[in-house]
Amino acid sequence: MECSEASKYLQVYLDGEFDEAERRDMEAHLAACPACQRQAELERRFRESVRSRLAAPAAPEGLRERVRAAMAAEPEARRIPRSLLWGSLPAAAALLLVLSFTWTVTSGFSPLLREAVERHTSEPPVEVKSSDADEVESWFQRKVAFRVALPRFVRTDLDLVGARLSHLAARQAALVRYQHGRQSFSLFVLADPGPGEDIGSKRCQRLRKREVCFSELQGYTVVAWRTHGLLYSLVGDAPPAHMLQVLTGAGDE
Amino acid sequence: MWFQWKKGKRETFEEQALEHLDTLYGTALRLTGRAADAEDLVHDTYVRAVRFRHRFEPGTNLKAWMFKMMFNLFVNRYRRDRRGREIREGHERDDLVARTTPGGELASTLKPEEFFFEKLFSDDVVRALDEVPADFRMVVILADVNGFSYRQISEILGIPVGTVMSRLHRGRRLLRESLREFAVQEGYIKPGDGAVEQGEVADLESYRRQRNSGGSVH
After folding, report:
1. Topology of domain A91-248, CATH
2. What is the ipTM metric for this complex?
3. Is the pTM of this model over 0.90?
4. Which of A42, A251, B90, B157 is in Cβ range 3.0-4.6 Å of B133 for a Cys bridge?
């Protein structure tokens, strides 16, 4: 190991992220090189002094009881009835659908969907933060030239996070962000450009009077559908079967 | 009968979660910088934890799970509005640091002014940490105060390990530069002393790839 390398990876070493062999290499270099040894010493002392000075006081008296009481008052888990928009599809049928789906990578991805994936992955910050669909819909009034109507997903643990203005294929679009555990989903809503706009017609499935089409790109799945003059595309880093669960609520406890 | 068992399970979860109260509160205090905000953040974290406790997999790290919940809340609630400004500040500060930092070889002997940070008080360090933009502060707190691994930080913040490493690198540099400014203000060191080396961000994956292929590593 040379000095430039030792210096570059010193933090990694001190963070305890090196494996056994890497650690041995670093230590052999440090033992032989006073300059690097010195840098390591400086670094160690810096960390220790920061750590000890940032040690925080214990939680104040009362917070523990406040937290305990709040937890006791909280119902077990939120449950939303399945009867909303997508949910009346019987769970068993939906589950069958999930099980019967098999997928291969879609070629010929439409530019609109490709752009949806790109915008989803760049994760732009939301402009309005809200978990309330009505509030988000009204935020878009006068900001876009169409009336944004959000689907009422039945998945109980799909949290609406917020929304922002966006564009897809040079058209104004509403970007709505949802969260499910670690996964985030972006829903794009725009005025339907018409049947000329391909939404991945190769893999489509009828679902509650709607035809929803699934496409996969770079590990992301896009589910797209059209209704009432609007085009929806939901992007997530989950396999299609999982995305279907999000739409139908199947697989919920 | 079954509901009693279920109730018991829930109480166990709550008790286990409460074991991390002090750590969570201390971290919340460093994150928000205000005791009232820290208390609210911790309170809401616990409410959310109970609400979504069915998502917690028993046997996995409850502390990391609670941290993830708290950092999510922090990002959504306290940070979002200031995000653009903070990130910009981060770049600007970085440029400033780069411009004012002399490069070159390390001197061969230890100089007392390089250990200026050991003269600083706790309050100075807390204030200096506040100066570090939230994206970087979060990673520094998780690594250097709480001792989480890169992998755990990556899971808590939902960002790749590579991003953890680069933010940690930059965050530590920014913190040290901010501490140096305090030390100059307090007269512990002269302007120009204890300058912060920028260094290069480590890329562990490419290091290992090259190591395994037997090539020289840079």
Report:
1. Phosphorylase Kinase; domain 1 (3.30.200)
2. 0.76
3. no
4. B90
